[in-house]
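Hey, can you fold this one?
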Amino acid sequence: MENISNEILNIAVSAAGAEMQSLKHLPSGRELLWQGDAKFWNRRSPILFPAVGGLWNGTCHVGDKDYALPKHGFMRDKTWTLKAQTACSVSYEYVDKGEDRAAFPWHYVVGVTYEVDGRFVRAKFAVKNTGDETMYFQMGGHPGFALHDFEEDAAVDGYVRLEGKPDHLLRAGEQGCTEPTAFPVPMTDDGLVPLCVETFANEALIFDAHQIERATLLDRQRRPVAAVKSTAPVWLFWSPQGVHAPFVCVEPWYGLCDPIGFTGDVSERPYINRLEPGATWEGGYEIEVLL
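Sure. Predicted structure:
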């Protein structure tokens, strides 16, 4: 486990999945990251690659061949290599070894760098195509935030303020793939999304089409806790369906799960990233702690 810090923040990252394990606000001693509980969800902040969300029938179609690619890909379960560390940054890398060709046919190197800078944590993704064919992939972040004023009998556990142009959302239906209908965004009279069982009655809130630029998590008293910012075209907000849970995930995705019934080529998957041989793609997200 590697730790990086400044006078305000300390984060811990594990080589297992290159997953952030802790995000602590030092002046208050408060842990912002969900700490994992199998009763609800035992992860904390996984990296999703080379798929985000579900594929119809679990299948990725590449030309005339089919590949069994699991939901969210497989990178969250890999052991990454520590490449560099300073007091305020840490970098990990995973070099494709060919063991997942039955799921993903391309050669690649994927990396992530975490930085702390004042009140900010930045997660920077990089993917390099090391093969000789055009590569198609998706990638996403999945940080979970603890709801510290969570109460078992509370009707609402917090709120999210959305910045951008949120005007509709999608739902995951059969096999975790998107339904064809767009739905209204559940909001209070003052424009906040309430975190409650009813909000997540259909699992995640899925925003496509670059609707979201920044999302701020607020507690039950509407006090700001943290904000996530990203250029990702798709955002998800997730808490376990039908369960009163003490956390919410704010997920910037460079990609989207398949629509229900999708049988097209990988190049036609929603928000797919295309990467030519030798080229490098970059993305990521930023967390601002607002305590």
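The radius of gyration is 19 Å. Let me know if you want another pass with a different chain boundary.
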